[in-house]
Write a structure and sequence with these properties.
The chain is an all-alpha fold and 106 residues long. Helices cover 42% and strands 0% of the residues. The N and C termini lie far apart (35 Å).
């Protein structure tokens, strides 16, 4: 018999009030932040920023190495950028990796 754990704070299943996050505005934030990260990659700042974004969205900073895998790197990059620009933490949060986003306020 298993017991259900309560959802982590900030998770979509939690009773906390969620901020309104329209699809179009989220896409605009995602597009410009990702574009800025990509441009800054050429001066190393973007790579560090991408590692911080990975860490904030529940992955490890070393996962930046997944970006070198042709198709999987694009998937991880887009997923990280989308989560990083969200107003709410809507994905499942791991116990050992706290999650937040750029606009969540936490």
């Amino acid at each position: 018999m298993t017991t259900a754990n309560p959802p982590a704070p900030g998770y979509a299943g939690a009773p906390a009030a969620l901020k309104e996050d329209g699809g179009l505005m989220h896409f605009v934030r995602f597009f410009f932040i990702t574009l800025l990260m990509t441009i800054l990659t050429y001066v190393i700042v973007g790579i560090i920023w991408q590692m911080i974004a990975l860490s904030k969205t529940g992955r490890r900073k070393r996962d930046i190495l997944m970006f070198l895998i042709p198709i999987w790197g694009v998937i991880v990059s887009v997923q990280t950028g989308w989560r990083y620009t969200a107003k709410n933490v809507y994905w499942s949060v791991r116990d050992d990796r706290p999650s937040s986003s750029l606009f969540s306020g936490s």
